[in-house]
Amino acid sequence: MEKIFLTIMTKYGLVMSFMVIGLVMYVAYQVSEKLTKGRIHGSAVAILIGLALAYFGGTYTGGKTGLADIPMFAGIGIMGGGMLRDFAIISTAFGARIEEMKKAGLAGAIALFAGILSSFIVGYIIALIFGYTDVVDATTIAAGAVTFIVGPVTGAALGASSAVIAMSIAAGVTKSILVMILTPFVAKSIGLDNPQTAMVYGGLMGTTSGTAAGLAATDPKLVPYGAMVATFYTGFGCLVCPSILYLIARAIFGG
Amino acid sequence: MAIYGVTILSFCMFCGMYIGMGLGKVIGVKANVGGVGFAMLILVLLVDYLLKKGKLSDAAQKGIQFWSAMYIPIIVAMSARQNVVAALKGGPTAIVAGVVAVAAAFLLVPSISKLAKKSDITKIEQ
């Protein structure tokens, strides 16, 4: 019987990964709701569980592709592989409307530029400090400081190693969780009490889940404003990090 | 039909990747230069055009929305297949990068929202 189980899990890998990841999502959203009272968004919990599973898989098999190294979970490697990942990320642009972009206006645009640039520069400096002097590695980690999506997209586009891509995800998740938790506490001191500032905030922070959860805890009325601008952040980050910003980094630090 | 939406999506991916890889070749770097970003940009423009023309049926939209809804689960699967063991050998780099990026962004909020308030273009009327 056990053999049949393993056969199904490996033979129908991709489809079975929907079952496994679905279970992870359920557990994550329960943890988010019951243990953190929704303060840490379910998606962030789910990604953390994903990273933990990858660690488990890596130590268990000694391989390089996390949980996907265990044959019965190989399907997760397909589901989370570059092809479907890029496809799903591109599809999120479907929600973006040009009218909304115009509504966000100049403030949103400035905030977007400033947010991506500041995160990228800061991330790059930290990467250098910790000895990641290779331009591709440092760019990937810096892109991770932009968001946990921009990091892996950039890393994959530039051909970074899985270890560096994992670090970029971790940097992005750290950012996302901090934004979720800290927003209500800093709201007052940074004047976060009107739609205008909420849009600037969304543009600067960028992480959609982080901004939405953080603003919800501050003032639910501000959520749509912040989230609207934040939606463009990831797309814009995916555009500029593996292109202009990488080329600039390459020109400065060689490669 | 739902497949039409998925077709549009994959067409955008093709174009974006073509531009990204083409740019890489032109510039002379072994990389896909912003392919995903270009694809997203093309999708936004194409969807906008088709919606205005009334050429994007509900079913076709649902075909795209499905993938958009699968985005976080796919990211979770992506996280589960990374070399986290090796990443942890890099020490606290990732966490420090995340923390400092947030701190920098917090510091920028007041000055940029002041700048935003000065500009007349951003009047919010909803």
Unreliable residue runs of chain A:
none
Largest sheet of chain A: none
Count every helix of chain A, treating DSSP H or I runs of 4 or more residues as helices.
Answer: 12
N-to-C span of chain A: 54 Å
- The total domain count of chain B is 2
Say how many strands of chain B there are.
Answer: 0
Sheet/helix structural class of chain B:
mainly alpha
Mean pLDDT figure of chain B: 88
What structural class do the secondary elements of chain A suggest? mainly alpha
State the order of secondary-structure elements of chain A, H for helix, E for strand.
HHHHHHHHHHHH
Largest sheet of chain B: none
Radius of gyration of chain B, in Å, reads: 20 Å
Structural account:
The complex is a heterodimer of chains A (255) and B (126). Chain A has twelve helices and no strands. Chain A is mainly alpha-helical and 255 residues long. Chain A folds into two domains: 2-80, no CATH class; 92-253, no CATH class. The longest helix of chain A has 32 residues, at 98-129. The N and C termini of chain A lie far apart (54 Å). Chain B is an all-alpha fold and 126 residues long. Chain B folds into two domains: 1-81, no CATH class; 85-118. Chain B is built from six helices and no strands. Chain B has helices at residues 2-27, 35-53, 58-69, 71-80, 84-88, 93-118. In chain B, 48% of the residues are buried. The model of chain B is unreliable at 120-126 (pLDDT under 50). Chains A and B meet through helix 2, helix 3, helix 4, helix 5 and helix 6 of A and helix 1, helix 2, helix 3, helix 4 and helix 5 of B.
